[in-house]
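Sorry to interrupt, but I need a hand with the structure work. Could you write out one complete protein record for me, on any chain you like? Just paste the record in under my message, thanks.

. . .
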Amino acid sequence: MRAETHIQPDTAAVAPARRWARERLTEAGLGGSALDLLVLLVSEAVTNAVEHADPPVLLRVDVDEERTRVEVTDGARAEPILRNPPPTATGGRGVMFVDRLSTRWGTLAHQVPGSTVESKTVWFELAHGDIPSELAPSPRARTDD
């Protein structure tokens, strides 16, 4: 399954992007911790793009039998910075989450055909079944059913 959507370059567009990704990933048969982890990482990648990059912003998901790949393309060439912020910092953790929780990730630089405009795609993949055990729900966790 492959799908893509344009994202408004505004932080208010992050929640709709999360919902869109959750719906597409659910349609592709994903659920449970894998779905929750992917939606978290989508949220971090989209937030980074709308806060630090230039429009247009495009979100793509590609699910096959082995892995899910998510790509966020924006109109800026600057690559995301992997930080290790102190616990008191109010931000700066998005790329760290993608780095630590995805199976692999990276960036691709590209030039818009027929112009001098450069852009980049930040991508990450999660191998199906490659979910860190610390994300599994605790048997003592309260559920709100």
